[in-house]
Amino acid sequence: MTALFRPDATVHLGVFYQGVNHTTIWSDPASGSQIDFETFRRLITTAERGLFDAFFLGEGLRLREQGGKILDLDIAGRPDAITQLAALAGITTNIGLVATQNTTYNEPVDLARRLSGLDVLSGGRAGWNVVTTDNAWTGENFRRGGYLDHADRYVRAGEFLDVARALWNAGGTPDSVRIQSSQFDIASAAPIPRSPQDHPVIFQAGDSSTGRDFAAQHADVIFSAHGTHFDDALDFANDIRARLVARGRPDDDIKILPGTQIVLADHERDVDEKVRWVKEGQFTGPTTLSIAGQVWGRDLSDRDPDGPLPTEDPIVSGVVGARGSAFNGIDVDARVREWRSLAEAKNLSLRQVVIETSARTGFAGTPSQVADELTRWVRGGASDGFNITPYLVPSGLDDIVDKLVPELQERGSYPAAYGGSTLREHLGLRRPSIGE
Ligand SMILES: Cc1cc2nc3c(=O)[nH]c(=O)nc-3n(C[C@H](O)[C@H](O)[C@H](O)COP(=O)(O)O)c2cc1C
User: Fold this and answer.
1) Residues 6 or more apart from 345 whose CB is under 8 A from it?
2) Strands 322-323 and 65-66: what pairing?
3) pLDDT block averages, 10 residues each, the chain of length 436
4) 264 near 403, Cβ under 8 Å?
5) DSSP-derived secondary structure for 362-426
6) Which of 17, 111, 128, 207 to mutate to test the pocket of ligand 1 (most atoms within 8 A of CB)?
7) N or C: which end of the chain has fewer CB within 10 A?
8) Is the peptide bond before 394 cis (omega within 30 degrees of 0)?
9) Torsions phi, psi of 359, nearest 5?
10) Among residues 428, 408, 407, which one has the least CA distance to residue 418?
11) How far is the CA of 132 from the centre of ligand 1 (A)?
């Protein structure tokens, strides 16, 4: 594991608005609605004031379920990402607008048109986070039903991008696109001319070896899950750089933005207390029982979250009943054994175990300490910046913009103004050549 030495590298920041999730402390009086336009407006205008590169939205095409019931947090739902970003394009000038959209259930001509519509209307600020979506049950929402296995999903994603790029490249010309591949047989005119950044910036999220190769072949930016430990992030970044070189691309051709959380306190003595407050607010009693229920494959909603761990064995098939759960596919027996020994060794309640094993804080400290850390990560080559999920919505970026950004600017590791007008320019990405 070799750290790089990039003394002039600057930190790129995005905000990842999760909508449905327990990262946000929804019970806090400072939290607003998760679907009101005012929430998105406040968050994105704060991010733009802080010169963030992008406002980033995930996508879930089906509400998560547990034991046949929709998860509490999902009931409010979340608006479609492109619709939301189109509305936000009208009230912002510079910040990039990144929509997660999957290639398994969409159709390429339609999606390419909607994304380039956002790109043209926003003056070249659109990004597309390409995901394949990892559960068959989402497929039940679609006419053709069914599902593709992991490898085929990536084959389809690659061919999907080939169609989208061909259409974008033909934009503004009378040329039509004819593509026949294993997944598509398409003849279409290009729906919309090229935007000021040519076409949307391609983000990728997906961490398997196939997913990483897919990124090395197609992506401009990776939204990674490696945003807490420097060594882990550096390993990931070095792996991506090696895959880029193997594909004939320069090793800095992709920007890596891990998802992370940032907890700031004005004084060092208050940092631990603030972190504890955030974790306890995120892992409420009902959230604890929902997470534990996904691991045990049982309905644990009547248990005491502050009591001991359930004594029953997990039901392996019960995990399948938690649809859209991050725990699908894990070895539940091993996970329960690990939780039990942790509880025993440290005398922890169920909630404390869930907090200790689930909460990825990312960065915590005074603004000055966190600015040093973020700068170290970027200058050491562990990432090119961060996609921050605030733990309060919509006010959670205020501290970051008012206190952390000036510290970064003082260190010369953050810009003093937007350097261009497109997302591609903000991220320092080269213009795509025709044919890419
Ligand atoms: C950081 C990260 C964010 C993701 N966000 C989404 C999302 O918003 N919607 C979605 O359907 N899938 C999302 N995915 C899942 C990917 O689409 C993909 O299905 C999954 O990671 C399996 O691919 P893999 O085996 O290559 O990791 C995300 C994955 C990662 C690592």
Assistant:
1) none
2) antiparallel
3) 90 93 87 90 98 96 84 84 97 98 94 97 98 83 77 95 96 93 95 94 94 96 95 97 97 96 97 94 92 90 95 76 72 91 96 85 94 98 97 95 98 97 97 68
4) yes
5) -EEE-HHHHHHHHHHHHHTTS-SEEEE--SSTTTTTHHIIIIIHHHHHHTT-S-SS--SSSHHHH
6) 207
7) N
8) yes
9) -80, 115
10) 428
11) 7
What pTM did the predictor assign?
0.94
**How far is residue 274 CA from its own chain's centroid?**
24
C-beta separation of 385 from 52 below 8 A: no
The rounded Å distance from CA 225 to ligand 1 centre is 9
Question: Ligand 1 centre and the CA of 266: distance in Å?
Answer: 35
327: number of Cβ within 10 Å: 15
**Six token digits for residue 78:** 């979340």
Ligand 1 centre to CA of 205 (Å) is 5
- Contact at 8 Å (CB) between 383 and 11? no
3-state class (DSSP) for residue 82:
helix
Ligand 1 mean position to 59 CA, how many Å? 10
- In this prediction, residue 318 carries a pLDDT of 56
Write the residue with the smallest CA distance to atom 10 of ligand 1. Answer: 133
Q: Report the nearest atom of ligand 1 relative to the CA of 134.
A: 19
Tokens read off for 389: 């999920």
User: Over the range 106-134, which residues count as b (16 or more CB within 10 Å of their CB) and which as e?
Assistant: bebbebbbbbbbbbbbbbbbbbbbbbbbb
Residue whose CA is at the smallest distance from ligand 1 atom 21: 206
Among 74, 105, 130, 134, which residue has the most ligand 1 atoms within 8 Å of its CB, making it the best to mutate? 134
| CA-wise closest residue to 7 among 415, 412, 372 | 412
Residue 235 main-chain phi, psi, to 5 deg: -55, -45
CA-based angle 179:183:185, to the nearest 5? 35
